[in-house]
């Protein structure tokens, strides 16, 4: 008798397996990279006799590296599928974390090398690489898997920050980095190698009817890049300054922190709603609803509705925008060339996200609550770009 084979990747069971593996790996990847500096920057800077701003500067440089490498990573995934690229991200993240863990205090250059390796790992392994992998596996049917992965990874900060805090308290920041490296090698790497199929993307001989053609197609691409760049700027600015902004509105430090803590749960809730209720909407409609959350949140705070209203609306919009940046390009332009196209669309977003904390921080220092209208204006610009986008026939 023939043995019963495991569910193929295209079957419901196979998709659940792939989504579960990528969701868990994404949670680990975000927790040990993007969310790491918030906990370890201060003790790391103290160990090297550096100001904390130097550590955040190194982190910003690693984010700039992801912007530069994004188009290349996307082309590689388009050509050969994403499994090997995602496995490479685990190796790069582990190498970066171990480099941080062993960096001699007298050699800060080794510390910056570690952040550079983390930047390489983020370019190879965060959402955009995972979404391109899913587009290669499932084509236009990848919306559901993309939403599922984003929903799972929405818990990255809720898991990463407390775990890193506990590890740093027990083992020091170096020990925390070493443990995260071991999790990349012992858990995330096997998830990618064993549960993600080595399937290439759809063949080039099967062109998509939504592939950008001529000036109109590239105009659509530019509008989408503007929309996602503006949203990405606002998300990065609030990730760094939301408690401070809410405090400027008159909230106490405790209330501002409590309201800011709602953003994470609201992101996850919005992603659950997308999977359960909003999946029938076209991604362009979802994108417009999500992007409207930024100016609406600013209006709520400006009208005195309180910091909790801002956090709820802003957080829900953020949660949907993470999904939209994967599903909307797929719906507009198709699966062929998805990875390279994503790299081009998201490169300016990554560049501005690296600069957003500094830029918005300066605006907050000089204009106080008036910086809120920069946030609102950028959101309206993104919404205008989405309004000008058209659905494919």
Automatic annotation (TrEMBL):
Identify the keywords attached in UniProt to this record, alphabetized: Membrane, Transmembrane, Transmembrane helix
What is a GO molecular function of this protein? transmembrane transporter activity
Which SUPFAM superfamilies does its entry note?
MFS general substrate transporter
Transmembrane spans: 21-42, 54-73, 85-107, 113-137, 149-169, 181-200, 221-243, 255-277, 289-313, 370-389
- Report if keyword Transmembrane helix is assigned: yes
Q: Does the keyword Nucleotide-binding apply?
A: no
Put simply, this protein is called: MFS transporter
- Taking every annotated instance into account, which residue ranges of this chain make up the domain Major facilitator superfamily (MFS) profile? 18-393
């Amino acid at each position: 008798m023939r043995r019963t084979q495991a569910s193929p990747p295209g079957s419901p069971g196979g998709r659940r397996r792939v989504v579960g593996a990528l969701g868990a790996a994404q949670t680990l990847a975000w927790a040990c990279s993007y969310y790491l500096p918030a906990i370890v920057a201060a003790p790391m800077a103290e160990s090297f006799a550096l100001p904390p701003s130097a550590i955040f500067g190194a982190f910003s440089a690693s984010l700039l590296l992801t912007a530069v490498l994004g188009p290349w990573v996307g082309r590689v995934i388009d050509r050969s599928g994403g499994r090997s690229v995602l496995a490479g991200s685990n190796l790069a993240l582990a190498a970066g974390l171990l480099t941080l863990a062993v960096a001699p205090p007298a050699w800060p250059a080794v510390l910056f090398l570690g952040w550079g390796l983390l930047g390489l790992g983020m370019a190879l392994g965060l959402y955009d690489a995972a979404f391109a992998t899913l587009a290669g596996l499932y084509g236009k049917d990848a919306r559901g898997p993309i939403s599922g992965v984003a929903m799972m990874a929405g818990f990255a900060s809720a898991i990463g920050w407390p775990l890193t805090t506990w590890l740093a308290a027990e083992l020091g920041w170096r020990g925390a980095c070493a443990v995260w490296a071991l999790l990349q090698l012992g858990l995330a790497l096997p998830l990618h190698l064993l549960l993600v199929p080595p399937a290439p993307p759809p063949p080039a001989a099967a062109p998509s009817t939504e592939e950008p053609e001529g000036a109109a197609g590239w105009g659509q691409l530019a509008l989408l890049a503007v929309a996602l760049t503006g949203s990405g700027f606002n998300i990065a600015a609030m990730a760094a300054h939301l408690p401070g902004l809410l405090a400027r509105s008159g909230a106490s430090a405790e209330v501002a922190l409590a309201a800011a803590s709602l953003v994470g749960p609201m992101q996850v809730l919005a992603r659950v709603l997308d999977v359960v209720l909003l999946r029938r909407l076209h991604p362009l409609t979802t994108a417009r609803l999500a992007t409207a959350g930024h100016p609406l949140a600013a209006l709520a705070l400006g009208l005195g509705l309180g910091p909790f209203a801002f956090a709820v609306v802003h957080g829900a919009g953020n949660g949907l925008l993470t999904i939209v940046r994967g599903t909307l390009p797929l719906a507009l332009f198709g699966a062929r060339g998805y990875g390279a196209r994503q790299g081009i669309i998201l490169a300016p977003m990554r560049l501005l996200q690296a600069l957003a904390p500094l830029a918005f921080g300066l605006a907050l220092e000089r204009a106080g609550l008036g910086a809120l209208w920069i946030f609102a204006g950028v959101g309206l610009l993104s919404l205008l770009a989405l309004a000008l986008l058209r659905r494919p026939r």
